[in-house]
Amino acid sequence: EGTDTSQGKPQLISNINACINIVDTVKSTLGPCGMDKLINNGRMVSISNDGATIMGLLEIIHPAAKCLVDIARAQDNEVGDGTTSVVILAGELLKEAKQCIEDGIAPQIIIKAFRDCLVTVFEVLDKLNVPFSKDASLQKGLLERCARTALNSKLINTEKDFFAEMAVNAVLGLDSDLNLNMIGIKKVTGGSMKDSLFVDGVAFEKTFSYAGFEQLQKKFANPKVLLLNVELELKAEKDNAEVRIKDPKQYQSIVDAEWKIIFDKLDKCVASGANIVLSLLPIGDVATQYFAKHGLFCAGRVTRDDMERVALATGGAVQSTVSKLIPSILGTCEVFEERQVGSVRYNFFTGCLNSKTSTIILRGGAQQFIDEADRSLHDAICIVKRAIKTGSVVGGGGAIEMEISKALREKSRTIRGKEQMIVAGFAKAMEVIPRQLADNAGHDSTTILNKLRQKHYTTDDGTWFGVDIINGGVCNTFEAFVWEPTTVKRNALASACEAACLILSIDETVKNAESEAAQKSEATSRRQGGGMNLNQKGMGGLFQGAPGVTKMKGRRGR
């Protein structure tokens, strides 16, 4: 009751049109010459050309079009790059499927043919991928080329060599599990991109400081580091407990006991031989002045992520008590120092023997620029990680898509019936990547696609020919070092195909108008940052007019 149903071919076409409209929004961001999008959602302004970021900020409410948001997010989480490509490929597959549906072909046949095509796509990728050299001395240079390709289409592409080297150093410094959480990325406004720092160790912003902080020693050579999850602050027990005394003189003994507790903790920290004391909890002004008097450095309220990275780098262990602080739980590094970065102070731990972590401090003008640089560098780091795990690459610039298109066209000629038309449509959809790259660079996409077809179909050495963004023609992208890890293409093509099949399998949408109105009002309330409007439906239908709820009359019911 109160629901609206839409079904059949019109519903399917409507879903496809909604997805195509979304794709038209993001397709101009593809490639090195792609444009950026400025998105203002009423609370904040974001500038980005990252597909997953844009899809997340658009606040898409169409049920079917949300599938594109999901595949962009999945691509970002899985491999880090190719988020725009996966959305564009899914949209182009749906556009080709739309023509088949209008011609009377059943969606089930299209879905089956698409999945058969995906098998061929994987066979082409397995056949053409180029494994990395086993020579360890060459590996760093190969990874940097992959990172530069990922940064080509980003806001920081003018300094891609600088940031590519930074991304590779960060990933190669990790443990064998390549946990990217061990790479800390900090952001400091001011300066230029070239002022960004790579720290082979840990760096974090100076924490909240108490009186006496300026007296602390700011630099140590080969220090011992004590890591705590203990509050080193004088606590008056009268605030935490009820104490009953018969003689006013007993009050002084209570105060003395409070001081004794804090000084016992501080004495044990100093006696441990530590030069630096870090804690997840506050370190108060009494403790700060005590440590300054004894020549130690201290910092409280250190974030858990930074504390974990310090523990990993220095070899220390976080303690929840100051009892029995044995030497083996202390960490160490070659140099600790606090120095100025832009307008803020940073604590640096460098030269760590067990360093399996690193820190990147990004610099730049506007906050939006630094945020986009952070997203760009994250994509490059993910690409380097995937390249290490995969161990093989393919040519970028639309070269691998043209080879896939060629293989599918040849396959379509061996098929009889309706599937031939669908497979040919899948092959045509693969050409959207080189076509869009050429369009975004301002070149004639028709001419470039014709040249690419001629190279791939008629010459033996044309396998890796793709779009030449700089000169407006075609070039061997593999020799130009435009490389992409095989797993990026594999994941993008699989996700795009699955998303297209999912949308094609929907033939009916059921909507409840009242529920939809409640969701919209809730979204509006969230955007405005206020509480719930009591005049609107909420609280599980507690208020008047909520669907599916009967109002129960009490003694004062009207």
Major sheet: order of its strands? 7-14-13-8
Mean pLDDT: 84
Distance between the termini: 27 Å
Shape descriptor reads: elongated
Attribute tags:
558 residues, alpha+beta, 4-stranded antiparallel beta sheet, 20 strands
Question: Could you characterize what this model shows?
Answer:
By secondary structure, the chain is an alpha+beta fold. It contains 17 helices and 20 strands. The strands form seven sheets. The protein has a four-stranded antiparallel sheet. Strands 11-10-9-12 form a four-stranded mixed sheet, sandwiched between helices. The protein has a three-stranded antiparallel sheet with strand order 4-16-19. α14 (432-440) crosses α15 (445-458). The longest helix has 24 residues, at 367-390. The chain is elongated and about 100 Å long. 39% of the residues are buried. The model is unreliable at 530-558 (pLDDT under 50).
Summary, kept brief:
This protein has 17 helices and 20 strands. It has 558 residues and is α+β, with helices and mostly antiparallel strands.
Strand and helix map with partners:
Elements: E1 3-7, H1 9-26, E2 37-40, E3 45-48, H2 51-57, H3 66-78, H4 83-102, H5 107-128, E4 130-131, H6 136-151, H7 160-172, E5 183-189, E6 197-199, E7 201-205, E8 219-221, E9 224-228, H8 250-271, E10 276-279, H9 285-293, E11 297-299, H10 304-314, E12 331-332, E13 335-341, E14 344-350, E15 358-364, H11 367-390, E16 392-395, H12 399-412, H13 418-430, H14 432-440, H15 445-458, E17 465-468, E18 473-476, E19 483-485, H16 486-504, E20 508-512, H17 513-528
Parallel strand pairs: 5-15, 9-10, 10-11
Antiparallel strand pairs: 1-20, 2-3, 4-16, 6-15, 7-14, 8-13, 9-12, 13-14, 16-19, 17-18
Helix pairs in contact: 1-4, 2-3, 3-4, 3-16, 4-13, 4-16, 5-12, 5-13, 5-16, 6-7, 6-11, 7-11, 12-13, 12-15, 14-15
